[in-house]
Predict the 3D structure of the following.
Amino acid sequence: MGKLLQEINAAAREGGVMGVWSLVVKASERDKLREQAKARAKKYGISVKENGNLSPPKGYPDKASEYGDPVNYKYPCDAEHAQPAVNYYNQSGQRSDGGYSTAEWTIIGRRIARLVNRHLDAKWKYEDGKLVKKEGD
């Protein structure tokens, strides 16, 4: 609660009533984004993470469906970010650092493989917690 009071005081000093109102609007928008994230979590079987994004990061795909983790807007899989998504997913510690369960990690891995295969020459599949190139590629 102390941090919230500090934010309110700072907003009041900087913008008076309008500054406080702006803070209230931002909190309302955050609440709405949290509710949307909860709905995505139910749809995709991945929980909302404390270090996740509530909306798409600037410069990344706008659609949740373009992410390996569409709940937290992690692992973008559009043409520009497909290979980095594979690389990051395969880095040691990504599952635990992201706070993902084994089941969530499997869901994300399968989503990334399916999504990046649209953009990359090599074809990928999920296998034993990693993304691996399909044989013959």
About this structure: The two ends are 55 Å apart (CA to CA).
